């Protein structure tokens, strides 16, 4: 069975029949996308026209800030123990710095 998407005018709630206008409205640091019929889009533009005429043209785009998503922290490992194990297995590892993921995986497999 197929699905149909019905678009509704955000202002008057009427069904939009192909004549859709998406308008991005930004005030301060907040932005909204408003989906309107051509008639309502024209009315919105007419309503804000006096403000736009007296405004300075903005340069560039406004960046909206979104909270950064943090990657979960890697589990804490005793890298010195892993290095000692790797050396005892004949695997070459450096005394300092990062331990290769393949070495960590081998260590974990051996101690699972």
UniProtKB/TrEMBL annotation:
Pfam family name, one = Lsr2_DNA-bd
* GO MF terms, alphabetically ordered: acyltransferase activity; DNA binding
Enumerate the spans annotated as Lsr2 DNA-binding domain: 76-110
Entry-linked Gene3D superfamilies = E3-binding domain (4.10.320.10), Lsr2, dimerization domain (3.30.60.230)
Region feature (Disordered): 56-78
- Position of the signal peptide: none
The family database entries (InterPro entries) matched by this protein are listed as: E3-bd_dom_sf (IPR036625), Lsr2-like_dimerization (IPR042261), Lsr2_dim_dom (IPR024412), Lsr2_DNA-bd (IPR055370)
Every copy of the Lsr2 dimerization domain together lies at 5-58
Show the ranges annotated as biased composition (Basic residues): 65-74
Keyword Ligase among record annotations: no
Keywords, comma-separated and alphabetical: DNA-binding
Q: What is this protein called?
A: Lsr2-like protein
Give the organism, scientific name. Answer: Intrasporangium chromatireducens Q5-1
Lineage per the UniProt record? Bacteria, Bacillati, Actinomycetota, Actinomycetes, Micrococcales
């Amino acid at each position: 069975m197929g699905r149909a998407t019905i678009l509704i005018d955000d202002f008057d709630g009427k069904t939009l029949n192909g004549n859709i206008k998406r308008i991005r409205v930004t005030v301060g640091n907040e932005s909204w996308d408003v989906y309107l019929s051509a008639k309502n889009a024209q009315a919105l533009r007419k309503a804000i026209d006096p403000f736009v005429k007296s405004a300075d043209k903005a340069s560039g785009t406004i960046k909206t800030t979104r909270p950064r998503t943090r990657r979960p922290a890697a589990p804490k490992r005793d890298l010195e123990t892993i290095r000692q194990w790797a050396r005892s297995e004949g695997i070459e590892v450096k005394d300092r710095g990062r331990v290769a993921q393949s070495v960590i995986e081998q260590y974990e497999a051996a101690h699972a």
